[in-house]
Amino acid sequence: MKYYIYCFSLLVVLFVSGFTVTGAEFNLKNGVIYVSENGNAGSVKINKFAAGELRKHLELISGAKIKIEPVKTLPANPGKDKLNFFVGFKIPGSKTDGDKLSCHYAIRGHNIYFWGYNRSNNDVLNYSTLRGTANAVYLFLENVFGVKWIYPGDKGIVYKKRSSIILPDKLDFSGKQKFNMTMARTYTWKAKRVKAFNKFVPAELRASDREIKEKDHEQKLWGARNRLGRWRKISYGHAFTNWWDKYGKTHPEYFGLNPYGKRGLSEKYKTRVKICVTNPDVVKQIIADWKKSGTQEYLNICENDGTMGYCRCPKCMALDTRTKDETFYDHLTDRYVYFWNKVTEQARKVRPDVKLVVYVYSYYRLPPRREKIEYPENMLIGIVPKFMDDNQKLFSEWRKAGAKHVFLRPNDLAHGPVIYRGLDKYFYDKFQASKVFKLWGADYDGYCGNRAIDFDYFMTAKMINDPDKKFEEIEDEYCSAYGNAAPAVKKFLALQRQDGKTMIKKIKGIIEKDKVQFLDSSFLGVVIARNAAKLIKNNFAEADKILKSAGSLKLSESEREKLEELIVQNQHARLTYEFFVEGNKKKAGKKNDLNNAAKRLLDFRIKNKNAVRMCWPVQYGRGVSGEKEYWAEVSWYRKNILKKHKEGNKDTVFFDSFDLPAMDGWRQRDNFVEITKEKASFDKYSIKLKSTDKKRIGISKHGVKVEPGKKYKVSFDSFLEGDVEYARLRCVASGKTLFNILNRNKGNLWTCKSKKFTVPEKVDKLTFYVYTGPSKQNASVFVDKISLKKLN
Predict the structure, then answer these.
(1) What pairs with residue 126 in β-bridges?
(2) What is the pLDDT of residue 18?
């Protein structure tokens, strides 16, 4: 009899439920773990890791000390009075295959065997490590003892204490991963990134090297326990990040032509440089590099994401299929499908079974209108859906275009704010829509450890390991960790979910009204922060009441601790919400209490640090958390922290690219037309002005604070249509013109002008005006990327 991961037997259910089954009862205190030392070093390392995990959990469950004995072969006469666990050993006479995606455990009375396919480098917890033996152990613990891992760390381990277990005389269990990749990323505490942001954290919350190491290990271990990883050797993600360094000087023609008529991007953005997809030499270079690296099966040609630098040369532009009402960024898919086909055509000549890995994302996310995928068997497509996309429609149309082998690469878990968003069911349903394909795998990017999305992470891990599992089943599993308080926690999640439905509708309205650039779920946090009062129903008191009502129930120590932490999370979310609300008031120039709201939030975080357990460097240092821009508005934080780390704010007074889009403090004057995506130098949006036969003001910015006597640099970009002579940036100090900068008409190109200057003594505020030059045709002027920086 065989049992599968995704189809549990009645017998296993009976184990967990505590019903009597046919078999014998064994005392867990008599358990002995024999771990195999046979095989290569990587396999032995995984066996030992699996044995250690088995011992840890058995000791938690039983309270007893469990012995581990390394052995080369199965013991000839294991003690009959012992409960023997054989880790890394097949059951004698087993004919199970060595499938890389399979793992097995078998019960023969008091003897239990665990084995599976192992492949490891030096890091057992690496995403690409195959931990077959460990997976067998985890499934045994989950199926037989009901163990669950609801969030990283030992506190996230859910189990029931017991001293014995009833086991059947015979049971064979085989489990197989459904997908080649089951990923929900767990790299929030990656040392390099955390250390870079640590300086922006108030001293009381800064992470020590030891904490960074421990938290990183906890997150990776949580991923392993929930069977997350890449089970096939595959390379994907930004494929051309080093191309500018390698070929920028010798082959600038490889790269995208920018709006200024030049190839490539600035040094700052060189790792996001885009490829000229119609240049045949680019294809030749890709193939040559691939041959040099060994012509592996998977060839990564995913474009560098980010939004700048897509090629505007005539050949690339000719491949686009935009309608007359669409702008450059609205549809770039056909040029990329053309490019993929050209690379595949050449790669197949070298290796017929090659699989090119590409991304469907950003401005080439929508299905092609003219091109078709010519070699569907040779292409693996990673789809990154937009937050508001109709996945069913998106996937169906890509299938019609020839897509066959597909993996999901959503950013649904990339939620920074510590505010509950109630979108778990929404994301579950979007995943279910992917069944239009026979999915190759799934890879969810995200911020593991954000306590506001603990359930989202747990749900995703369960969902991608068992795609047919119902949402309600997953929710019940999660809530069971709270014992008798489970109904209250479920009611708490339902309350958030109810508000999440309303939030989605409101976000759609904000996107349409403000023309917000919203590529995927990772942008959600910033939108929530900037529109907190509009988007979030202030139901924190109601949520608090629901959770506290369960406090009088009979709970275990672990269950009560989890409930109390959830109450703290809700209170933390409320204070963060209030922080955003006051921050938005200040940004709007309204009366606010931001400094005090920030102080209340920080005090709460310091007091409840162990219960909140966030990665504070990411919260304070990364814009996607939603918090960074607001802390910069807090006077005491700016004075005590930001000014000590000039590299953090780079002495930028303002940088207005209008890509929120918003006026960013600029006043609309008589010649202002709109914020438009018709033309932009830096990204998608710019300011559109209308020129006349006279020089007129388009926009102005008043009261810009500067330091007297200090040196600054100001710059701006402009695009002048028709016969417009120039665009002019005027700087005024104390009512007098300090200087003017003129951008002249360069035909069909953007131009950028800058000026270094010294602020006069006793001057601490400047005013800037943008004028349009004269035009007899009343043509348009576009202005973008207006910047003011203090020079070091």
Answers:
(1) none
(2) 41
